[in-house]
Amino acid sequence: MTRHLKVNIVTPNGVVYEHHAHMVVAKTLDGDLGILPRHAPIIAPLAIDEVRIKRIDSDDHVDWIAINGGVIEVRDDVVTIIADSAERERDIDVSRAERAKNRAEELIREAKSHADVDELRRATVALHRAINRINVSKQKKKKKQKQFERAVFAFFLENGLQEKARELLIRFIQFLRTLTYEFL
Ligand code: ATP
Description:
binds adenosine-5'-triphosphate
C-alpha cells in the first residue's frame, strides 16, 4: 500500500492546515529539509520561509505556506509544524504584507541611524516575515501562468501545429507571460 504523509500546521490561532501529502519541503535553520514517507524521526527549528506540500490528489497540486518561524516534527509519517504564524498562499493579504515591508524598512533605517541594535533585530525579522508572505503569494500567479501555458500548448498540439509552430509558440508564450504577469 502506498504510504502518505499526514501534514498538520498549528499556530496559536488553531489548526491552519491538515492534509495528506507525498512530500514536504521546509527550510530549517540548518537548511532545506525534504520529507518523504518513512522519513526518520526529527525535530528541527524552522526559518521564516515557505513550506511546500505536494498533495496526493494530483501530480501538480502543490500548496505553499508562509511559515513565520516555529518547529517541525516528523514521526511515523506525520509531519507537524508548530508555527508562530502561518498563512496559505490564498489567505495572504498582499497589500498588508507590502505595508508591513515598508514599515519594517523605515524602522530599519531609523534603528541604524540611532544604532539601536534591538530595534534593528526586531525590524529585520518583521521585514523577513513580510518578504516571505509576498514571495509565497506570488506562487499563485506562477501557478495560474503555468496552467495557462499548458492550455495554450495543448491547443497548438491538438491542431497539429507542433513542429512548425514550435518557435512561434515559444515566442507567443513569452509574450503572454509578460501580459499575464501584468494582469493576473
Ligand atoms: P502586520 O504588521 O501586518 O500585522 P506581522 O508580521 O506583525 O504583520 P504577525 O504578528 O506575524 O503579523 O501575525 C499576526 C496575525 O496576522 C497572524 O494570525 C498572521 O497569520 C496574520 N497576518 C499577518 N500578516 C498577514 C498577511 N499579510 N496576510 C494574511 N494574514 C496575515
